[in-house]
Structures are given as structure tokens and as C-alpha cells.
Design brief:
The chain has about 260 residues and is of the alpha+beta class. The protein folds into two domains: about 40-165, OB fold (Dihydrolipoamide Acetyltransferase, E2P); about 200-260, Arc Repressor Mutant, subunit A (Orthogonal Bundle). It has eight helices and eleven strands. It has helices spanning about 5-10, 45-50, 100-105, 145-165, 175-180, 200-210, 220-225, 230-245, and strands at about 40, 55, 60, 65-75, 80-85, 90-95, 120-130, 130-140, 215-220, 250, 255-260. The strands form three sheets. A five-stranded mixed barrel has the order 4-5-6-8-7. A three-stranded antiparallel beta sheet has the order 9-11-10. The chain has a two-stranded antiparallel sheet with strand order 2-3. A hairpin with a 2-residue loop joins β2 (about 55) and β3 (about 60). The protein is globular and about 50 Å long. Belongs to the replication factor A protein 2 family.
């Protein structure tokens, strides 16, 4: 299905050190997200060929992607790490913002990954200076070589499933119209539930999503706008819930946030 000379010449499956203690089953961390329309496994070629609006599979917009690839280069900077990753379909950059506080304390912020290791990366695809970049918020070393094959099978299965779903007739009724409208067209509405967010959560989410800064918006700036509308405890709970649900992620530290489908 994917034709790439690196399979034959690059030795994609020639590295054994990383998988010396591999178990017999794929890494359980591969479990995909809570909503198939928001999280999906893809290959790098799909990311490189995505449009300005992000990755779409048969018309379904994917906000969070999972990629299994091999690390070809690592560039460490004070606030971020840039990885060059490659799978059998192509090569691209992946950027991970570092938690500066955690690095200063125990250096646990950066993943324990070396060049030529296989990794599984969760993030979203952005366009930077005309090139596609994977903005990562979770990188895990692949501990079982079977996960590589398993990931490609998941990509194929997910693509076929989305194709079948796209061909099904979807009746539109007045009472269900809002739930069928793309989330991006409702981001300015605070009086409804979008992608599982209630109006209170939407107030927080809209502020985070509207930020155009690369590092996102700080928790202090968010709450200074909302302090008259909700108590700090509720605000903290909403932030934690949206992080766990994959709606937002932290960037340079635990006090700055970006939305997974930010502008």
C-alpha cells in the first residue's frame, strides 16, 4: 500500500536493541482516543498531504493524531525538542514543548528517546512556514516491535471504517441539527454543548482556542477574564478535565495551554 525505498535501504526493522525485552503483545498505550472523529492513527504521508484546516479522513476532521515512526534526528533547545521522524511513507518534524519547571527539578520532562528509536507520538498537525509539523504533547518509546505493524493495521482499518461511515446516509432533522454541524462553526457559541463541552467549559475553551501565541495562553490570563463568572476551584477542575479529555494541552509549562484544534 505504501511504497518507500527507506524500507529496503534504511533498515526499518533492523534495530533490535530497543526491543530486546519486548512483550508478546502491542504496547497498551496504543489505545486510541475517546471520540473516533477527534482522534485517529495515521501515517506521515497523511499528515504531509493534509490541508490548512488539518487532517481529514473521508471528510471527518481529526484533531489528535497518533503516529508510530523512527527518530532520525533530535535537536534539543531550552524550551522545546525538535525530532525528525520517519515511517515507511515519509519524513517530517515533530516539536515537543518542554515543561521548564520539571526539567529544572528532575529532568523528567524530556522523553528518554534516542536517534533510531521507534516512538509513538500523539499530537496535532500544524503548518509552519509552509511545512507540516507535528505539534506533539505525548511521546512514548515503542517497547514492542509488534506495535509498528499493529499501528499500520489500525491506520488501514480506521480509513476503511471512515470511508464506510461517510457513505452512509445521515438524515438531518431540526432537533439534531446542532450536533451535526462542525465544531469550528460553533466556537463562538456559549449556549450549547459542543464536542461534549457544556457552556461553562466552552467559556474556558474559547479563550484558550482564540490565543494566537505559539506557547498558548497562561492560566493566569484565562482566569483573570473569567474570575467574575466562576470560582477558582471550578476553573481548575475544568482545565484538568479538558486536558484529560484531549481538548487542550500544556506547552512550555503547566501554566500555559493551547487547544488541540487552535487556529
Amino acid at each position: 500500500m505504501w511504497n518507500d525505498q527507506s524500507v529496503a535501504g534504511g533498515g526499518f526493522f533492523n534495530s533490535t536493541n530497543q526491543f530486546a525485552n519486548a512483550a508478546a503483545t502491542p504496547n497498551q498505550g496504543q489505545k486510541s482516543g475517546r471520540r473516533s472523529s477527534r482522534t485517529a492513527p495515521i501515517v506521515i504521508k497523511q499528515a504531509l498531504h493534509s490541508g490548512d484546516e488539518g487532517v481529514k479522513i473521508w471528510g471527518t476532521e481529526v484533531q489528535i493524531v497518533s503516529i508510530v515512526a523512527r527518530v532520525r534526528n533530535i535537536r534539543i533547545q531550552s524550551t522545546k525538542i525538535t525530532y525528525t521522524i520517519q515511517d515507511i511513507t515519509g519524513r517530517m518534524k515533530a516539536v515537543l514543548w518542554l515543561d521548564q519547571e520539571a526539567m529544572d527539578e528532575d529532568d523528567k520532562s524530556a522523553p528518554k528517546v534516542q536517534v533510531n528509536d521507534y516512538v509513538q507520538i500523539f499530537g496535532n498537525v500544524k503548518t509552519n512556514k509552509g511545512k507540516k509539523v507535528l505539534m506533539a504533547f505525548k511521546i512514548m518509546p515503542v517497547e514492542d516491535v509488534n506495535l509498528i505493524t499493529f499501528h499500520y493495521l489500525q491506520c488501514i482499518h480506521n480509513k476503511l471504517k471512515m470511508e464506510a461511515d461517510s457513505k452512509k446516509e445521515k438524515p438531518v432533522e431540526t432537533s439534531t441539527f446542532v450536533s451535526n454541524v462542525p465544531a469550528n462553526s460553533l466556537m463562538g457559541m456559549d449556549n450549547g454543548s459542543v464536542n461534549g463541552l457544556n457552556p461553562r467549559q466552552m467559556m474556558v475553551y474559547n479563550l484558550i482556542r482564540a490565543s494566537t501565541l505559539e506557547q498558548g495562553i497562561s492560566k493566569q490570563d484565562i482566569y483573570s477574564t473569567l474570575k467574575d463568572k466562576m470560582p477558582s476551584v471550578e476553573f481548575e477542575n475544568i482545565l484538568e478535565w479538558m486536558c484529560n479529555e484531549g481538548h487542550i494541552y500544556s506547552t512550555i509549562d503547566e501554566e500555559h495551554f493551547r487547544a488541540t484544534d487552535a487556529f
